[in-house]
Structure of Maleylpyruvate isomerase family mycothiol-dependent enzyme:
Amino acid sequence: MNAVPADDYLELIELESSRLIEIAATASGDVGVPTCPEWTLRDLVGHVGGAHRWVSTCVTGGLKAQQRILPLPPDGVSQLLDWFGESVDRLRSALSSVPSDESVWTPLTGPQASTWWRRKAALEAAIHRWDADNATHAQPEPLAAALALDGIAEFTEEFLPLLVQAAPAAPVPSIRLCPNDIDVCVDVPLMTPPDGAVAGLSGTQLSGSASDLLLWIWNRVGRDNVVVVGDAAILQWWTCLAI
């Protein structure tokens, strides 16, 4: 079950996209984005706007599979900002027009309720807003705790199993992520147990704000942002994940 109500995702998409636009409107588009290597702020805004438009197509397409082709943004600064605003409006309209429990196509897990896309789009906007904030301000604003918790669930359930298969063996069978601003912990298996076996808990726990834990699992912040109890070798191993 998601921590954020379905309708609240729409508000978060609007909020985080607006924040991203505010940053882009007051900073040079040529500023580099350290957490998105080889991207400038202009590239990042173009990516998020294109992703918003792609998600709009996926949601309104129902169960028909969609190719992941992001439309190219315009070159001029004012044109880019206008285009991005139109992308946000188009996305919100598309998501609002489809009931949150209606099944639609998704690229990773097959047919899912359209809430899947609401969560995906809200996280896309929020994490990349943080990327832009981090590139232009000394203290970027964290993600909302409930949305960050949903991001942890998304990553650990959908992305991590694939990433672990291509990574060296983890130093511990599992970790426990414990946000200090939400009363919940998430157990994350890092190894596939033999048939019939039960995955053991290693006792390795990472704590911090929900935002910092989500940003850590996406390799956007380092060990100074989390507190580890147990085998700290997990910190170095995690950087090997091809994210």
Q: What stands out?
A: The two ends are 25 Å apart (CA to CA). Helices lie at 6-26, 41-60, 77-97, 115-136, 145-165, 210-217, 233-238. The chain has a mean pLDDT of 93.
